[in-house]
Amino acid sequence: MGSRLVLVGCGKMGGALLGGWLERGMEAGDISVVEPDAAIARTLREDLGVAVFADPGDLDSEVETVVFAVKPQVMEDVVPAYRPFAQAVFLSIAAGTTTGVLRGYLGADAAIVRAMPNTPAAIGRGITAAMASGPVSEEQRQRCNDLLEAVGEVAWIDDEDLFDAVTALSGGGPAYVFLLAECMAQGGVEAGLPEDLARRLANATVAGSGELMGRSSESPETLRRNVSSPGGTTVEALQVLMGSEGLQPLISRAIAAAARRSRRMAG
Q1: Which domain does 107 fall in, by range?
Q2: Are residues 96 and 118 in the same domain?
Q3: pTM
Q4: pLDDT in tens, 79-110
Q5: Which residues of 125-163 are buried (b: 16+ CB within 10 A; e: fewer)?
Q6: How far apart are CA 119 and CA 104, in angstroms?
């Protein structure tokens, strides 16, 4: 890929991507970063050895891949400057920024891949939904896939309208899981446990269960059944959680609300 890979923005998600690329063996000299924050730029140069620029005008004119990892609200100010790199494939991870909007910034014939990662990418355990739009070659698609796989799984979709549901489910999903741990801890406190112990038990249980599910070939339903002895305490709790006003209808309403908000944000 040479020095023709450009990362625009190196905040939390951009930093996770960069870390994943380097951990997978990509040479620091093969990556250029455009980052106007002087403190971040200095850290990238000194600690990681990557080339950092404040202005895209200083980049190699033969750029092949541009990854936009900046906040959605600044895309309008940042992205149009990359329109001259018409030969590149543009990979955007900006939430809510459609390919139509990106094409308005980059030109009607731009090769665009829109992607939606989630925060477990920070530890290489994320999942990203991605969609190719415009004249994206198979080689460019594979290049983007490889870049995204550095921080977890990649699921390709063909319908851009699905991004609203993706955002609601996997994009916001980590927050739902963290809330579950909070609620479990609070339930433990209300059942008589000291707060510190309740939090420790809840956090370890959620983290360990997620790891077990990730490593297992069995479905979540089967794993749940494996924990649920007939007539036992877990079944008693599940009768509440799986009731008509239990967890499933609540989660479904939450995801529907997030998807509606995502559609409004996308305009």
Answers
A1: 2-159
A2: yes
A3: 0.91
A4: 999 999 999 999 999 988 999 999 999 999 99
A5: ebbbbbbbbbebeeebbebbbebbebbbebeebeeeeeb
A6: 28
What's the CATH code of the domain at 82? 3.40.50.720
Report angle CA 214, 220, 225 to the nearest 5 degrees. Answer: 130
Residue 127 falls within a domain, yes or no?
A: yes
Same domain, 116 and 204: no
The encoded tokens of residue 225 equal 């059944």
Picking from 105, 135, 159, the residue at the C-terminal end of a domain is: 159
The two structure tokens encoding residue 239 = 């009768």
Beta strands, E only, the chain:
5-8, 31-34, 51-53, 65-68, 89-92, 111-116, 126-133, 152-156
34 with 147, same domain?
yes
Match 């250029």 to its residue by tokens: 32
Cα torsion through 40, 43, 49, 50, rounded to 10 = 0
What number of H helices and E strands is found in the chain? 11, 8
